[in-house]
Amino acid sequence: MGTVSSALHRSPHLRLHCVNVYVRDQDRSLRFFVDQLGFNVAYDTRLQSGDRWVGVAPPDGAAILSLVAPKPKSEQYKLIGRATQVVFVTEDVTAKFREWSARGVRFQTPPRLKRIRYQLQPAQTSVGAAAGESAQSVVTRGTSRLLGEETPIWGGIIARFRDVDGNSFSLVSFDELTHAMEAQRRVVAAKQEAERRDAHELEIAKHVQSRLFPQTLPPLNTLEYAGACIQARKVGGDYYDFLDLGHGRFGFVIADISGKGIAAALLMANLQANLRSLCTIAQQEPNHLMCSVNRLFCENTSDGAFATLFFGEYNDASRFLRYANCGHLPALILRRDGSVTRLDATATVLGIFRKWECDVGECQLKSGDILALYTDGITESFDAAGDEFGESRLLESLRLHREPSPRAALNNIVEEVLRFNPQEQHDDITLILAKCL
Q1: Are 170 and 163 in contact (CB under 8 A)?
Q2: DSSP character for 122?
Q3: 111-139 tens-digit pLDDT
Q4: What is the pTM of this model?
Q5: Nearest Cα to Cα of residue 206 among 151, 268, 256
Q6: Are 275 and 350 in contact (CB under 8 A)?
Q7: Reported confidence tier of residue 435, pLDDT bands at 50, 70, 90
Q8: N or C: which end of the chain has fewer CB within 10 A?
Q9: What is the Cα 46 distance to its own chain's centre?
């Protein structure tokens, strides 16, 4: 059975396309099905042969009736005005009968109750039979599941009507089948409503999170800077910020929250709130700020949640940088002479250990130096061959784009990363560039 199930699972999509209904005048029949039955026009086009191709579908679009106008004296022309063997299933035949009758549809009979006794067929158990079973056995098995073995009667209401050419159709609602259809319809409707609501809420979350990123850039005399975050989903866990710490001091923040999606976005908002509310402590030492942030992050998040973070305090007058790297990727300083300085971790990640210590690193920036802070969405971006973009390519891009402004350089580097990975983006891409003037 595993082989059969696997084979069926790999089968391409298959559905009924259309059933031919032979009519004398396509325009007149089109008006009947659209105006009187409430069908939709599936297609109305002219084929290369010059013949007109017209199709209508019931509101759910499950199948199509192709309205064919055959040539007089042809065999198909003789079929006009006969029973089509087409059966429409509805939840309420009586309601549909009244609706269509009011629109001028001619019913041969009013709705009538009809019950059919049936004999359950034994289930086929062989692999070959399971793979190639007939439609009748499928219906029997489906009926068995719907009705139960103690109900050997299949009841329903049926009415027959004609179109403008006298073609006859059946309108039915089967007791158990109708119940199953209604249950399925409700499940589908509930699922669609839930998906619509989730999509709406996700759009709201995206808008709210976008406001958490810096909306203005505090002006500096000795540094030009820019930042960007391109999320892999509607919302994400990467975070960057620019903080005015007062007295000519400026804060850089970049962080990567564990996980993805809504959960990571909530943690990101929590971390951002903690940082901004506690940034006044940074007037003393960055490590005091980080210890406070870690304590609050531990208290407000579940076990196992953590974040890597780089915090830098830049003095606009002296061009001196003090920083705390909490388990984050090393920040890169591309010096004016082409050498590279890496600002490695000074502490472990935030959110796991309540007893936590943080050292502070120091660095002097000079005119022409470029500072790059980034998340692993850049360096761990893969190309079609499985190669990483990596730190070396990032440094090459920094050297290539060191002359433009940080904003222009940032846009060029992000575009290069996106071109490097032509597949679906799997992680947030966040980058801060700062150039010492």
Answers
A1: no
A2: P
A3: 988 765 556 565 554 444 444 444 344 34
A4: 0.56
A5: 268
A6: no
A7: very high
A8: N
A9: 37
CB proximity list for 436: less than 8 A, separation 6 or greater:
222, 223, 319, 365, 366, 367, 368, 369, 370, 371
Inform me whether the pLDDT recorded for 6 exceeds 50: no
Tokens of 114: 């009809």
* 8-state DSSP, 216: S
140, two tokens: 């029997």
- Taking the C-alpha atoms of residue 184 and residue 190, their distance in angstroms, rounded to an integer, is 10
CB 93 within 8 A of CB 161: no
Residue that has been written with the tokens 């660095």 in this structure: 363
> How far is Cα 248 from Cα 246, in angstroms, rounded to an integer?
6
β-sheet with 429-436: strand ranges across:
223-230, 429-436, 370-374, 331-334, 340-343
Q: How far is 272 from 155, CA to CA, in rounded Å?
A: 63
> How far is residue 182's CA from residue 194's CA, in Å, rounded to a whole number?
18
Residues 330-340: tens digit of each pLDDT: 999 999 999 99
The residue to which tokens 């564990």 are assigned: 258
Q: Would you call 434 exposed, middle or buried from its count of C-beta atoms within 10 A (0-12, 13-18, 19+)? A: buried
The DSSP result for 72-118, as a single string, is: TTSTTGGGTTSEEEEEEE-S-HHHHHHHHHHTT-EESS--EEEEEE-
Distances from the Cα of 428 to the Cα of 144, 205, 239, 297, 437, angstroms: 50, 16, 9, 21, 29
Cα gap 350→298, rounded to integer Å: 8
